[in-house]
Amino acid sequence: MIVNLDQFIEAERPKWERLDKILNRLANDPWRKLPLEEVREMEHLYQRASADLARLATFSAEPETRAYLENLVARGYAEIHGGAGGRSVAHWRPGKWFSVTLPGVFRKRIRAFWFALALMLGGAVFGGFAVALDPEAKQVLMPFSHLLGDPAERVAKEEAGADYNRLDGSKGTFAGYLMTHNIRVTLLVMALGMTWGAGTLVLLFYNGVILGAVVADYVLAGQTTFLFGWLLPHGMIEIPAILVGGQAGFVLAGALIGRGQNKGLAMRLRAAAPDVVTLCAGAALMLVWAGVVEAFISQYHAPVLPYWIKIAFGVIEGAVLLWYFGFCGRKREGDENQ
């Protein structure tokens, strides 16, 4: 029985607001795991709010407070008895996914990204030294026929404008081909995480070898400016996208191996699946952009499109990408974790 309704509401409201805050944080980050103490606190607050609602139900006064408590108790019930499934809708809202979830997952799994980057850099150093020590090695290392010729001859041909019209009327088709091809490669890099990461490791190293061989070939031929103007506009996004695919592959491999995780295989895979899907979707989105840029910007060279403009475009893309994955959504994450 409530003796003084105003005193009762004043005494209980801080506890309702605390429960409301916990539920909001879970709704904003559906995959957030509460520490044991906070789980116990939420259960206690939920039971207390349920009891308060039952006591308030006998009063005709305070309809707004009763409605607030009914909503709070319903959300608490769904959270405690319904699990994370009820929160999946919020997790995949496009705006929230792009501005908070994707960069947040990237940062959470940053160690897998550093590992993928180290592998590709290792491959690039190997490929670069191989071509520097034996120029004939590019016949073996480079899988694309248009890269096997003399870089100086190609640059002279491109700058003379001999091939400027080769994509007329087919830029959209070419961009579509680049998108689908690169997305297939990236998904393969991720899927090979099912080989306990061995396939992902090999493919990332091999892509690094090709990249290093191409860079060494053009730099040694004195075509560094052309190389940067050609690669940076699309490569500044395409290469990180492949690394993000490798990051997803290593997250998958980590769930399979299970080192340091006191969970069964099914639970480990279930816990890793949302992050793997998020990283793959992010990489695919990046590759769509890279395909458009490669078809409409990278294929044009000086004097049609000055190299400094292409290089500046690539540098700006890199700065935006660095800010996005490094800082985007941090404030909102911090607010939700308070």
Automatic annotation (TrEMBL):
The portions of this protein that span the membrane are: 112-133, 185-206, 213-233, 239-257, 269-292, 304-325
**Domain of life assignment:** Bacteria
Query: Which residue windows are coiled coil?
Result: none
State the UniProt keywords alphabetically. Membrane, Transmembrane, Transmembrane helix
Protein name per its UniProtKB record? Stage II sporulation protein M
